[in-house]
Amino acid sequence: MRLENVWLRYHRRGPWVLRDAAIGIAPGEAAIVQGRNGAGKSTLLQLAAGVLRPTRGRVVERPTVVGWVPERFPADQPFDVHYYLVAMGRMAGLTPVEAGRAVDHWTERLGLARFRRVRLPELSKGTAQKVGLAQAMLRPPGLLVLDEPWEGLDASSRELVPELIDEVLADGGSVLVSDHRGETVRLPGARRWTVAAGEVDEVAPTEGQAYAVVEIAVPAAQVAGTVTRLRADGHRVLGVHLDRLGATDGAGRETAAAEGRPGDAPVPDPEPPDVAVSGSTTASTASGGQVAR
Ligand SMILES: Nc1ncnc2c1ncn2[C@@H]1O[C@H](COP(=O)(O)OP(=O)(O)OP(=O)(O)O)[C@@H](O)[C@H]1O
Questions:
Q1: What is the CATH number of the domain that holds 187?
Q2: 16: domain range?
Q3: N or C: at which end does the chain have fewer Cβ atoms within 10 angstroms?
């Protein structure tokens, strides 16, 4: 998806909000849109999503299926969550059966199952925001556009956003996300665009921002297969060690940082670890070795 010399103003004689924006994003890429309040981030996202049309210029190669989550979910509608989402799935081109399945999947996944029969105006802001996320994911989007997606979400739900983003990227989709709260540190691989004084620019990536180290735990018997799969997916495996102290519980959840603890013993790696990446940041997840993407 690319903006080609896009200009936008809301009224005929109004000020230009965006001037000559020329920027694009490829399949499998994410970009974070940053800028001060009122700079034009939402405007840029709406142009990308096709919600707004450029006053001048054009947007090309927009994927057929676009998921757009506005900053505020429009909850002032007389429907319950299930009815609303099924209707949105139908509007997105799903058959009744597909829409029903997709709604069941996403309401379950986003913790909305118990709100199925609750009417939209009665939802809290965070729950309404999750309905917006579910709506955007009903058909796997080729482009997912998220305007301040963390707004209103409680701490336990915030992790959902990077999870969904990763899934869209893994399926070859693109993601645009605006964020003024600094939550996008959770997306270390994303490109960064800034909007200021009507201009959209890309911030050049600095060395070391391009990688993150993800610590994961797998049953010891599955190490070889996991390492092989991670390498096949293009990840670098930096090391493998045995967790003798039980720092992870049975469900694979981590209860302490694992590396370098007394009692850890190296387990044979099917191949030697790849060269370590310098300047990387660390983060923990709940699934499988020590890898960098
Ligand atoms: N529907 C509209 N009609 C007229 N002006 C608008 C409209 N929507 C936005 N604007 C103006 O366009 C400019 C950019 O707004 P926009 O919402 O895109 O900024 P933003 O960077 O997303 O801000 P925020 O971080 O506060 O959401 C602002 O001056 C705003 O007042």
A1: 3.40.50.300
A2: 2-203
A3: C
End residue of a domain, out of 156, 181, 203:
203
Q: 146 and 185, same structural domain? A: yes
In sequence order, which residues have a C-beta less than 8 Å from that of residue 191 and are 6 or more positions away? Answer: 25, 29, 30, 31, 32, 202, 203, 205
Pocket-testing residue among 33, 34, 42, ligand 1, by greatest number of atoms within 8 A of Cβ:
42
Rounded CA Rg of the chain: 21
pLDDT digits (tens, 9 = 90+) for 101-160: 999 999 999 999 999 999 999 999 999 999 999 999 999 999 999 999 888 888 878 888
Q: Cα(112) to centroid of ligand 1, in Å?
A: 31
Same domain, 192 and 281: no
Whether residue 26 sits in one domain with residue 125: yes
Instruction: Tell me, yes or no, whether 159 and 277 share the same domain.
Output: no
Decide: 70 in ligand 1 pocket, CB within 6 A.
no
**Selected residue with higher pLDDT from 188 and 176:** 176
Cβ-contact 31, 46 below 8 angstroms: no
